[in-house]
Each structure stands twice: as structure tokens, then as C-alpha cells.
Design brief:
Blueprint lengths: L20 H16 L22 E5 L8 E4 L5 E4 L7 H6 L5 E5 L5 H4 L2 H7 L2 E6 L7 H11 L5 E4 L3 E5 L2 E5 L17 E5 L2 E5 L5 H9 L8 E3 L11 H7 L3 E4 L11 H10 L2 E4 H4 L2 E5 L5 E5 L12 E6 L6 E6 L13 E6 L14 E6 L5 E2 L4 E3 L5 E3 L5 E2 L4 E5 L9 E3 L13 E5 L5 E6 L1
Parallel strand pairs: 3-4, 4-5, 5-6, 10-11, 11-12, 12-13, 24-25
Antiparallel strand pairs: 1-2, 1-14, 2-3, 7-8, 8-9, 9-10, 14-15, 16-17, 17-27, 18-19, 19-24, 20-23, 21-22, 21-26, 26-27
Helix pairs in contact: 4-5
The chain binds zinc ion.
Zinc ion (ZN) binds next to helix 3.
């Protein structure tokens, strides 16, 4: 491996002076201006931050399962690393498990705690070359902690998120124009990065809402995307029709955990389902790594499959398909789900393809929930939902007998305590892939099954 070399940047000679928070911000802005008037580009020549056994040919975009918040790790084929947001809590050990040893570019999309909560820890724990934010200060202790961490690290070069292109190995990050400071709320000034690796494209835009998305569409700054990180955790105001018409993402990943905001919202899930071939959620699937190739193709790895991730409390159990045709895996959702709610004895399988026309025969498709424990499972008030949030609520007193099973048909019928009916006139489960999630009465995901 090559010895560490400097990043070539006009900002190299500038450092953050120590001093008050206010003085640091002023100084940071000055450094930013210096860099912005120069080439506007950073040639990252850092050595690989991971030690792959063979040369990597993919750009890895990993949406970390950090609960309700964002943390997105970019790993270039040559090893350069960028971290876009750092989640609400400590992500240091998680980054270590992913093989991260240094961070070439650290970005805070906006100063809300679910995006910068873990950032001071990252700055204190890893070599960081460049730090970028939108320059908006905030009043919280979390933000002050971030500034204090930056003050303690004058070796980190500050970049303001003005339009520029940054090279991360053979990938590029375009910083898209922001709405003017003071003219938009914190969410609508989220630093937005368009990632390109050959024909592979990804858009990361923090918690941008309708106003910022309209701004970007108005600038024709949104191209067709391979990957979209759902803006604002899949909120109802985190998408617009025109934005999705421009983006046409092939895969959407929603970074979300247990929350009281209604994230992700049903209308957003439906809008994403109408445009993307694949939707993944960190609350259901754990870490989601999208491996992009320069020909525009990609592969999705999730949960325990994400490189080098160990532990995390996630359990997987194998479940045979309801018809025996395919081996399927049920992912037991943990993350924000408390241990008390975790019921590893439950397994879900989906028979999505009904005989004949699915819409004419909704009872021909069904979900089987098996209880592999000897003890009965009480599921009264629990809900079974598809990816578009079509849900069935089990009646009070519903139970699955020990080592028993229940079947939930999509159509209309009379429940007998072992067979339930969602009461739909049309098919629910997408034959090309969907996710069945069982939520307990408090709304916590207990078990999810994707196919
Ligand atoms: Zn957020």
C-alpha cells in the first residue's frame, strides 16, 4: 500500500484557528472562500482506507442503520472515504467494523441532531481531511459540540457547500446549489451531493423538503438516478412528483428508525413504489449497501451481508417459501426495536403469486406467519403491512398457537382464528418483490420478510 500522501488542495495551508465558536465560523467561511475561488476541485490522493484483498471496482454507498437519522458512507474503488452525516449517536465503532480508518471528506448536511449527533465522535476518532457544511449555525448543545470538536482539530480543512465538484477517487461528488441563507429553513438548506461513478448516479440530500426539491428541479440539477436516498427520512414533504419524474430512481433507500413523525409516510412509500424497482429501509433491512459499477449496474447488500459488519444484534432466520419453490430469508428487525418486542420465533412467508389473475383472485395470495416457539404468541392489535403500507390489523385476542401458524389472505372472508382476510378486492403483494412487516400494537416492527 502506498504511504499516506497529501490531498492536493488550495485549502491545505489553511487551518482552523482556535478561538470562540463565532470566530471559528468566521474563519471557516474565510477558508471556504479561498478554496471556492481556486480550482473548485479536490484531487483526493489518500491511500485506501480499507485493505481489500483484490482491487475494488465498485463504489460502495452504505446507508448505515443508525435509527432515526442519517449516516451515509461512500467508499471509492481506490479506497477514499466520505461520510455524509453521522447519525444521532456514536458511529465510531460501526465505522471501524466497516474497515474505515480515515475519512477524506466529512459532510454535515444540516445541523439537526439526527444528522450531526455522532459527528464530534467521528472527528475525535478518525483522521479527517475535509469537513463541509452549509455554514448555517445552530443553537443546540449538539452543534456546539461539533464546533468544539472542529476547534480541537485545526488540521481539518473546512469547505463550505458552495457549488463545486469533488473527486473521491474515480467517483465525483457535485455539490448542488443551495437556496440562499435565511431564505429557507434548516431542512431546505441541506447540503445536496450528486454522486457519479461512470453511469452510476446517487443523490444524497439530507432532509430536503418540497421547497429545496423544487429549487433543484427548477435548476434542472436532478438527473436520472440509480440510487436515491429518500429525502427527509421518507417524509410526506420529502418528495414531489416533478422531482421523482426527473430522478426516476432505480432504487430508493429510506434511512429511518422508530420515530413519532410518521416517517416514512404512506404517500411517499407509494410514490417511491410507483417509480423505483426496489425500496429498502434501514429500520427493516439494517445497513443497506449499494455497490455501484461504472456501467450503471448495481447490487444491493443489506443487513448482515454488508461488508465486515459484525454483531449489531441483528438475527436472520431461514424460512422456506410457502410453496417450497424458493428459499427465502426473514430478517428480524432490530435497530430501534426494543428487545422486549423482538420475537425471533415468528417467521413470515409470502405467497404473492395467486393462481390466474392475481387481482381476480386476491385470496389466492396469502401470508403465512409461523410461530416456532412452544409458547403462544399474542398478536391482538398487531398489523401486517406491505411496502406501500397496505395494512391488516389483527383483532383483539388474536394468537398464534405455540408451533402453530396463521394465514392472512388478501381478499374477503370470515376469520376463524387461523385464517384471516385483509378484505381487499385487489391483490396486495407485488409479484416482483415486496416486504411484509409485522408490527406490534405499539407500532414497533417485530419481523419483516422481503422477497
Ligand atoms: Zn433528519
Amino acid at each position: 500500500m502506498a504511504s499516506p500522501g497529501p490531498i492536493r488542495s488550495p485549502g491545505d495551508s489553511s487551518t482552523n484557528p482556535r478561538g470562540s465558536v463565532r470566530r471559528v465560523i468566521r474563519a471557516l467561511l474565510a477558508v471556504s472562500a479561498l478554496v471556492a475561488t481556486a480550482t473548485g476541485s479536490i484531487a483526493a490522493t489518500a491511500p485506501p482506507t480499507t485493505a481489500p484483498s483484490a482491487p475494488d471496482t465498485v463504489l460502495r454507498v452504505t446507508l448505515l442503520d443508525v435509527g432515526q437519522g442519517d449516516a451515509v458512507l461512500l467508499q471509492a474503488p481506490e479506497g477514499q472515504t466520505a461520510l455524509i452525516d453521522a447519525g444521532p449517536g456514536n458511529v465510531v465503532s460501526l465505522l471501524g467494523e466497516l474497515g474505515v480508518e480515515r475519512i477524506d471528506l466529512l459532510v454535515a448536511t444540516h445541523p439537526h441532531a439526527d444528522h450531526i449527533g455522532g459527528m464530534a465522535g467521528v472527528i475525535a476518532s478518525f483522521p479527517v481531511r475535509f469537513f463541509m457544511d452549509n455554514g448555517d449555525p445552530h443553537t443546540t448543545a449538539t452543534y456546539r459540540g461539533l464546533i468544539a470538536a472542529l476547534e480541537a482539530r485545526p488540521d481539518i480543512t473546512y469547505l463550505e457547500a458552495t457549488p463545486r465538484t469533488i473527486s473521491l477517487g474515480s467517483a465525483t461528488l457535485e455539490v448542488l446549489p443551495l437556496l440562499p441563507r435565511g431564505a429557507a429553513g434548516l431542512n431546505d438548506r441541506s447540503v445536496t451531493l450528486l454522486v457519479r461513478f461512470g453511469s452510476f448516479t446517487a443523490l444524497l440530500s439530507g432532509d430536503s423538503e418540497v421547497r429545496q426539491l423544487n429549487h433543484l428541479v427548477g435548476l434542472t440539477a436532478v438527473p436520472a438516478l440509480t440510487l436515491l436516498k429518500a429525502p427527509h427520512h421518507g417524509s410526506y414533504n420529502g418528495f414531489t412528483r416533478s422531482f421523482l419524474e426527473a430522478a426516476r430512481p432505480r432504487v430508493v433507500v429510506i434511512s429511518v428508525g422508530r420515530n413519532s413523525y410518521g416517517h416514512p409516510h404512506r404517500v411517499a412509500l407509494e410514490a417511491y413504489a410507483a417509480t423505483a424497482g426496489e425500496i429498502l429501509r434501514t429500520d427493516l433491512h439494517g445497513h443497506v449497501e449499494v455497490r455501484g459499477r461504472d456501467d450503471g449496474s448495481f447490487a444491493v447488500v443489506r443487513g448482515d451481508g454488508v461488508a465486515s459488519v459484525r454483531g449489531g444484534g441483528r438475527a436472520t432466520v431461514a424460512a422456506g417459501g410457502g410453496d417450497g419453490r424458493r428459499e427465502r430469508t426473514a430478517v428480524v428487525a432490530t435497530g430501534a426495536v426494543s428487545a422486549a418486542h423482538l420475537h425471533t420465533g415468528l417467521r413470515i412467508t409470502v405467497q404473492a403469486d395467486a393462481p390466474g389473475n392475481d387481482h381476480r383472485n386476491p385470496n389466492g395470495e396469502y401470508v403465512v406467519v409461523e410461530n416456532t416457539d412452544a409458547a403462544a404468541a399474542a398478536i391482538g392489535g398487531w398489523r401486517l403491512c406491505d411496502l406501500s403500507n397496505h395494512c391488516f390489523r389483527f383483532p383483539p385476542g388474536a394468537v398464534i398457537a405455540g408451533e402453530g401458524r396463521i394465514v392472512v389472505h388478501s381478499g374477503v372472508g370470515q376469520s376463524d382464528g387461523e385464517r384471516y382476510y385483509m378484505g381487499r378486492r385487489r391483490a396486495v403483494w407485488n409479484n416482483n418483490g415486496d416486504t411484509a412487516t409485522l408490527y406490534d400494537a405499539k407500532g414497533a416492527a417485530v419481523v419483516a420478510f422481503s422477497y
